[in-house]
Design goal:
This protein has 623 residues and is mostly helical. The chain is built from 27 helices and two strands. It has a two-stranded parallel sheet. Strand 1, helix 27 and strand 2 form a beta-alpha-beta unit.
């Protein structure tokens, strides 16, 4: 006889996560971004629809025990001194809504309670933008005392939910932080010197244009400039060019100037977006010069110092001072002592930098800077291999949870599926979200549209900004739905259009075969870097398939040995910064002493081909 048990809850969560996993694989087969299907699964199976995941696991604990709705007899309660409720009463006793500012509104309540409640509702949905901000309710003096209490209560609940979120939100945000740290390890300082000036101009335009146009269009939709308009503009600003890197690698043109410009511009765009993100969430509450101006300036200075340390200090300190002093394990150890020490250093620096920038605005800034600190540690990209070997699977699942749970559960389904949200989101998606990125490189000659479409892609960071803005009451449900539709446009269409534009440009320029090194390409065979499975924006566990007739061009690095084997040659015609990213970390088929199998029994290394094309918020990881 069964009694009370958590088995059904475990079964439901397992089923939900299994559906999210199948959505990722179905996206791969369909050749589309997994973001769309993962969000779809979360919306359909989440608490707001079929309810496979119970709301107890998807709602902040503080929200469950808070009641911010203004009671229908609000005016009568004020007149007779009756309790307003546990939560509203607490807010009323704080400094968020000074009673004297709304004295006349309260007197009006004494005459007509129903008219007052109607007035509260009217002001709650007011879109004239003439409010002034107060500390508790996001900084506005509202049209009535009741509205002020309700909005201040919602802001207070949002603050506490930010401190102690529900479990799925916590997992998703942690995954994004790990992803941002990992992406920072691929910043190439040498390439930035070569294509830096023009790439920086592309990044600046690619960040500013969506910010400005998105803000303007939001205001035209009847929303206030602050914080709604700026929040939407900031959410549209980040770029994720993982799909661009994959397609550039397939075409063998990563070494070309426009390919390097895309890579560098993407990283600079991400840095600028992190700064915008920091400033945006400093705007909550009263305008504070310290938070809005001083802290971001200090953060930029800190980033500059950290970048110098990444080039001058950390490579020497880690490779020449710390690691040589670590006692070595035996040759049969799976993970060397040096790699274990390196992983501890990376984790410690991630926490340290994240903590510093948390007090300057956002920990994500510090995560990216911490990752950059290992970009020059030699052998190049070895820190990334060590990190991925330990974290790749858990980070992959965290990012999947971010889209299927953190983002999907926060979407108001009724608002998202409304005709108004779809039409406004379509306009926002085609204009501020896509066209501004397409037109961000007018001075790059014939490659301007190739670079522009490469900058269109969106992934975790853009959705994170939108979700956090909605959770922080900086945008309402209608605006959040519009923003989600806009981001989905870029997520869906960017890969297909960029592929077409890139192929036409490469064919027109005539360097495709030379770039891939290949007569093989001319004969219709796969280029040296290998054919790659269909794209998936974001961090996934998909294989990077390799042509079955092609032999691997490098040896496997064994991180458990005292001295790693070095690559035999290059990995194909790929940008030097990405050469040693391409390897298998855990294949048992290529352990020391074993010979690669021939014919149909390919090794995991051969099946994988050339592993990781990495950029901000994008990863392709082998099983």
């Amino acid at each position: 006889m069964g009694g009370a048990s958590s088995f059904l809850a475990m079964l439901s969560i397992a089923g939900f996560l299994g559906c999210a996993w199948f959505a990722s694989k179905a996206s791969r087969l369909a050749g589309v971004s997994s973001i769309v299907l993962e969000i779809t699964v979360g919306v359909i199976l989440g608490p707001s629809a079929l309810g496979l995941i119970s709301s107890e696991y998807a709602v902040c604990e503080h929200l469950k025990h808070s009641e911010c709705e203004v009671p229908s007899d609000f005016g009568t309660r004020l007149e007779k001194g009756l309790p307003l409720g546990k939560t509203l009463g607490r807010i009323a006793n704080m400094d968020y809504c000074p009673y004297e500012l709304y004295h006349h509104d309260v007197e009006a309540d004494h005459h007509d309670v129903e008219d007052h409640v109607a007035s509260v509702e009217e002001h709650m949905h007011s879109e004239d933008g003439h409010h002034r901000r107060l500390s508790g309710g996001g900084g506005v003096t509202y049209g009535s005392y009741g509205e002020c209490l309700q909005k201040s209560c919602e802001a207070d609940v949002s603050h506490h939910c930010g401190l102690t979120p529900d479990v799925f939100t916590l997992i998703g945000h942690a995954g994004v932080a790990l992803m941002i740290f990992e992406s920072g390890m691929h910043f190439d300082f040498e390439k930035a010197k070569i294509v830096g000036p023009k790439a920086c101009c592309v990044a600046v335009l690619g960040t500013i244009l969506p910010l400005i146009t998105g803000t303007i269009l939001t205001v035209l939709y009847g929303k206030p400039l602050l914080p709604d308009g700026v929040s939407v503009g900031t959410a549209l600003a980040p770029t994720s060019v993982g799909i661009a890197l994959r397609l550039l690698g397939e075409a063998g043109v990563l070494q070309q100037d426009f390919g390097q410009a895309i890579i560098t511009a993407a990283f600079v765009d991400d840095i600028l977006s992190l700064i915008l993100f920091n400033v945006l969430f400093s705007l909550r509450g009263d305008f504070d010069v310290i938070k809005v101006v001083v802290f971001p300036v200090v953060g930029v200075i800190f980033m500059g110092i950290a970048m110098v340390a990444a080039v001058k200090f950390w490579p020497y300190f880690i490779s020449d001072v710390i690691l040589p002093r670590i006692p070595q394990k035996g040759a049969s150890a799976k993970v060397s002592s040096a790699d274990e020490a390196l992983f501890v250093i990376m984790f410690a620096l991630l926490i340290a930098y994240g903590t510093i920038t948390h007090f300057l605005g956002t920990h994500l800034w510090g995560c990216f800077i911490a990752g950059m600190s290992f970009a020059c540690v030699k052998p190049l990209h070895h820190p990334h291999h060590v990190w991925v070997k330990q974290t790749k699977r858990i980070t992959s699942w965290m990012i999947r949870v971010f889209f299927a749970c953190t983002v999907a559960f926060s979407i108001p389904v009724s608002k998202l599926l409304s005709i108004e949200a779809f039409l406004k989101g379509s306009l926002m998606g085609i204009g501020p979200c896509i066209l501004t990125k397409v037109l961000c490189a007018p001075f790059m000659g014939d490659a301007k549209f190739v670079i522009g479409w490469a900058m269109v892609g969106r992934a975790e960071f853009a959705y994170l900004i939108a979700q956090m803005a909605a959770a922080g009451n900086m945008i309402d449900e209608d605006t959040f739905s519009i923003c989600i539709w806009a981001l989905l446009y870029a997520t869906i269409f960017a890969p297909f259009i960029f592929r077409t534009v890139l192929n036409r440009y490469v064919a027109r320029q005539g360097f495709a075969i030379a770039a891939t090194g290949g007569a093989a390409a001319a004969d219709g065979e796969a280029p040296e870097q290998g054919g790659i499975d269909e794209p998936k924006l974001g961090f996934v566990e998909d294989h990077m398939a390799h042509s079955s007739h092609q032999q691997p061009t490098k040896q496997k690095l064994d991180f458990g040995a005292q001295e790693a084997e070095q690559p035999a040659t290059t990995y194909g015609k790929v940008a030097p910064a990405f050469e040693d990213i391409k390897l298998d970390l855990e294949s048992s088929d290529t352990k020391p002493g074993r010979q690669p199998r021939k014919g149909k029994e390919q090794t995991h290394l051969e099946r994988q081909g050339f592993g990781f094309f990495c950029c901000l918020f994008y990863k392709k990881v082998s099983w």
